[in-house]
Amino acid sequence: MMEESGIEATPPGTPPPSTSTARDAAAVAAATAAAATPVSLGTLADPMTQQANLSSALAPGTDSTITFPEEHDDPRVSTATGGLWGFIKGVAENPMVKSVLDKTKHSVETMITTLDPGMVPYIKTGGELDIVVTSNKEVKVAAIRDAFQEVFGMAVVTGEAAESNIAPQPVGYAAGLKGAQERIDSLRRTGVIHEKQPAVSAESFIEELLPDKWFDIGCLIIEDPIHGIHLEAFTQATPVPLQYVQQAKSLTPEDYSLRWSGLLVTVGEVLEKNIQNVNRTDWHMVFTGMSRRQMIYGAAKALAGMYKQQLPPRTV
Asked: CA-CA distance, 193 to 159, in Å (whole number)?
């Protein structure tokens, strides 16, 4: 009767199905289906696309779950005024340290110039003092440069050729001063140097200091228009034998246009012709044992000393 109604009767004594067994069977079926289904790896994401997505996510106004720590100053780095540079400046301005540095610098320069005297002009060239010598002859330029660098410590001294517009052999103090001044004026007129440029000029002349006793003397002047300074100095007098002076006079025509200022022929030219191994530009060594450069240097050093005293004090 029960079979006809479609209801299957469970035999008596048969236990009901286990729930855990049903779950295990379902898990096995799912694993089998997954293994049987092919896995698609898809397309790898483009790094640029990832970066764009990241940037979009971090754009202002959007909510981001990524936070960055705030930057803080390193407490080990001092932000106080001065710091390391302030310390260095303080040390450098210390009088004792400056004295040690100056002595060290002087010692090094002394060693260099002792080993190579030719380095002196290069080491001492510089500073605020700028002097133009009205000549390009080394005997004058070098002597004046050495003198001013000795007095001022450092100085820029250069030479420019200039005309004196007087006789080649000036006679008398007035002619010597005139020739030296004319050399400066000619450089200013032609625009070779500025009208305010400090300049030093040297001119040699002969003078009869005693009856029939002639001497060669060098005249040096410095002109500084900016400070209104004009000074003169003279070299030591070098004796010139009378016969050579008379010969220079005899070689100068009476109608010589510059006779008012001196002679057409220099005593140096006469000495060069009459005495062997004598140079017309530096014959002083033969007669005195001192070179012309040494004589110019002595007068230039005195001139530089007087000039330094008249300059206004420097403001630090």
From this structure: 11
Please report how many Cα atoms fall inside a 13 Å half-sphere around the Cα of residue 146, on the Cβ side. Answer: 18
d(CA 141, CA 179): 17
Q: Tokens 């080491």 map to which residue?
A: 123
Neighbouring residues of 73: CB distance < 8 A, sequence distance ≥ 6? 79
Lowest mean pLDDT among 193-207, 246-260, 268-282, 291-305: 268-282
Rounded Cα gap, residues 120 and 137, in angstroms:
19
Alpha helices for 80-170 (secondary structure H): 83-92, 95-115, 120-124, 138-152
The DSSP H or E segment spanning 199 is: strand 199-210
Helix (H), strand (E) at residue 157: strand 156-159
pLDDT, mean of residues 186-204:
96
Q: How far apart are CA 133 and CA 140, in angstroms?
A: 8
What are 29-85's pLDDT values in tens digits? Answer: 555 554 455 544 444 445 454 554 544 444 555 555 555 555 555 545 444 445 666
Tokens 């030479």 correspond to 159
Half-sphere exposure (Cβ direction) of 82: Cα atoms closer than 13 Å: 6
- Quote the CA–CA distance of 271 and 283 in Å, as a whole number: 8
d(CA 103, CA 113): 15
**Mean pLDDT value across residues 272-290:** 91
Q: What is the C-alpha separation between 152 and 106, in angstroms, rounded?
A: 14
Quick check: helix, strand or coil at residue 218?
A: strand
Which structure tokens are listed for 6? 């479609």
In which residue are the tokens 């005495």 written? Answer: 275
Strand partners, 217: 205
Residues present in the chain in total? 316
Phi/psi-derived region of residue 275, left when phi > 0, alpha when psi is between -120 and 50, beta in every other case: beta
Given a cut of 70, whether residue 223 has pLDDT beyond it is yes
Q: At what angle do helices 95-115 and 83-92 cross, to 10 degrees?
A: 70
φ and ψ at residue 314, rounded to 5 degrees: -75, 140
